[in-house]
Amino acid sequence: MGQIGATATQKAAAILSAANGLPAVIAGLAADTEASQLQFQTLHVLSQNVAPEISDRALGLSYPAVYVYCGKLSNSLQEKFRTFSGQAEMMAEVRVTQDRLDGLDNLSQVMADAVTQVLDASRGDWGGGYFYAGGYEVQYGPAKAGGKNFLQTAKIKFDLEISI
């Protein structure tokens, strides 16, 4: 059953990092606003569930970063005679950083909005028995020490229907 979560994570990360995914949406948002902070050199989409304190030290990545992972699997056997028929609770955790608190909250909200726009455009069949019907929940975290000086996160939770 662990492979189901890994496959769901890979599919979600591929959709977010595709050319018509987050890079295109962020470029559109940067063109629509005067916020120069949306001009990112790199955007990392990673398939990991790792705390910011550890990723800052171990990975040394630049920000913004989106960490995609499966938080929970639920095999409810909605369809009899299937190996797995249920839901995967997926998380896309957006992490942004800058050296000042000013505008950090706005930046995390814009990045979370970009993720939700990609999810909205990706409703339907993701292939191999994975389906995204839509819907998500966004939870904004407080700013804390990390990254360049201050780090803020936003978690986007969404469910995939799986029938394998």
Task: Explain this structure.
- With 164 residues, the protein is of the alpha+beta class.
- Helix content is 32%, strand content 35%.
- Strand 4 (124-127) and strand 5 form a beta hairpin.
- Helix 2 (22-32) packs across helix 4.
- It starts with a helix and ends with a strand.
Keywords:
164 residues
Biggest sheet layout: 8 strands, mixed
Q: Note the beta-strand portion.
A: 25-35%
Low-confidence stretches: none
H-E string: HHEHEEHEEEEE
How many angstroms does the end-to-end distance come to?
11 Å
Mean pLDDT: 90
Class by alpha and beta content = alpha+beta
The oligomeric status of these chains comes to single chain
The number of distinct β-strands equals 8
Shape: globular
Indicate the radius of gyration in whole angstroms: 16 Å
Number of helices: 4
In helices, the fraction of residues equals: 25-40%
Compile the SSE list and pairings.
Blueprint: H1 2-17, H2 22-32, E1 44-46, H3 52-58, E2 65-75, E3 85-98, H4 104-121, E4 124-127, E5 130-132, E6 137-140, E7 144-146, E8 149-163
Parallel strand pairs: 1-2
Antiparallel strand pairs: 2-3, 3-8, 4-5, 5-8, 6-8, 7-8
Helix pairs in contact: 2-4
How would you summarize what this structure contains?
Helix content is 32%, strand content 35%. The chain is an alpha+beta fold. It starts with a helix and ends with a strand.
